[in-house]
Amino acid sequence: MLTIKNEADIPKMKNYYRASDMLDFWQFFSNSSPLEDLAIVFDEEDYLNNKDYLDSFDSYRLDTIKPYTLISGIESDGGKTNFLELFKKIKKISKHSVILFFDLKGEPTKRYMRHAGISVSVNMYSDICIEAVGKGFDGREISKGICVHERYVIPWFNLRDLNISNFHSYNIFMIDQNDYQKSRLKRIEYLLSLGLKKEEFINYIPIVYKPIPDFIWDDLIKNVLFYIEKNEEILTNCGYKHFCINGNTEGSECFLIQMYNKDRY
User: Fold this and answer.
1) Bridge-partner residues for 1, per DSSP?
2) From CA 181, how far away is CA 208, in angstroms rounded?
3) Strand order of the sheet with strand 97-104?
4) DSSP string over 12-63
5) φ and ψ at residue 2, rounded to 5 degrees
6) pTM to 2 decimal places
7) How many angstroms separate the most distant Cα atoms in the chain?
């Protein structure tokens, strides 16, 4: 097992795709990252040897060591999981696959209870493109190219004057109700495919699309976008010139958890 509690493990953890993405955001955006703990577990034996510690974690993701193909396609409802069975499943797909266990600050909500899923694409010195899905959805829809509900493009040199009063002037797309209904039906089908019952989540997905609340955008502006503008030179020197940041919301805050270069889009 590797853990961020052991500083010597961190460079080794950066050899894994998703772990590296999360660690980079945690290190660059230390004031904004909700990450509190992260561990990489290699196999069933490793899990059993550290079970008491790992069972205290709130969340998990699948990962693969670079440069092997990143494992994907195994979905979760975010609830408790039989990790011994999951290891058997992922090792059949790739012997290089691992499980990331992580904790974010606060108590995690169900994936259908969030205000938004958000992706921020940065083209340094050119512009920032923000794509988002609204209430009842999460970042999966954006990262997998399933749908977008809102899109904003902010020219680079307008960043320093950005605030919640002028933010909406940069909106270039807002989904219409017909297309929203289609995305809502797909979302319902997806949640049902995870084994969730319709009565658990249906009231969290509005029938008519409601734009993402301003308090979410205000948090994003103050804690992420301003940092990017003020630290443009540091980010560029570290190889982050064209990159993406994404995640979800928890309560009134943006919980963006990872960043990656354009070659990982």
Assistant:
1) none
2) 8
3) 2-3, 35-41, 97-104, 59-64
4) HHTTBHHHHHHHHHHHHTTTT--EEEEEEE-SHHHHHHTHHHHTT-SEEEEE
5) -115, 145
6) 0.91
7) 54
Quick check: helix, strand or coil at residue 184? helix
Calpha distance 249→139 (Å, rounded): 9
* CA proximity to 64, closest of 24, 117, 108, 100: 100
Higher pLDDT, 213 or 31: 213
Q: What is the pLDDT of residue 81?
A: 82
Joined tokens for residue 42: 């290699």
Q: 122 has which bridge partners?
A: 128, 243
Q: In the chain, how many H helices and how many E strands?
A: 11, 10
Amino acid at 68: Y
Residue type, 45: E
Span 135-158, pLDDT tens digits: 999 999 998 899 999 999 999 999
Residues recorded for the chain:
265
Task: Give tens-digit pLDDT for 94-149.
Answer: 999 999 999 999 888 899 999 999 999 999 999 999 999 999 999 999 988 999 99
Tokens linked to 108? 């995690």
- State residue 45 phi and psi, 5-degree precision: -60, -45
Enter the DSSP assignment of 77. -
